Amino acid sequence: MFKAEWNFLLKNKKILIVLLVIALIPAIYCYIYLSAMWNTYGMVNNIPVAIVNNDRSANFNNKKITIGKNLTDNLKKKNTFDFKEMSYQKAERELQNGKTYMIINIPKDFSKNASTLLSKTPRKMEINYRINSGQNFIVSKITTKNYYWWCNKY
Question: Which of 48, 54, 68, 71 is the most buried (most CB within 10 A)?
Fold first, then answer.
């Protein structure tokens, strides 16, 4: 019976072509889906991220420290995201328009809080961030995950 079916398909080329096309449709779908998801972290250096540096310099042991500027410069040198420094208004506008996927906001007392690390009452150095997950869900997950990675690294 099995041999008879194959003989029938080989004699009727139109039916064989239809069956091959029907078999190729899921294969093409799988290829497109998997190629889009295969290397999601391979091109993160093209994801635009805005850095808003509001930090003011502080004095520590008679030295001027600018932790916010140092952090901004180091991030822009890294190849993890496409970091761009800009004003808060421009960053908000670009986040709403979908031109950036994340805003990293360095507060104005960032260096001042760093200078209290050795005092009796140290203050936390906090960095705020916002993402626009409505633009691209996968990119929002990538930026959030990588944000925690480089925050723990620096």
Answer: 68
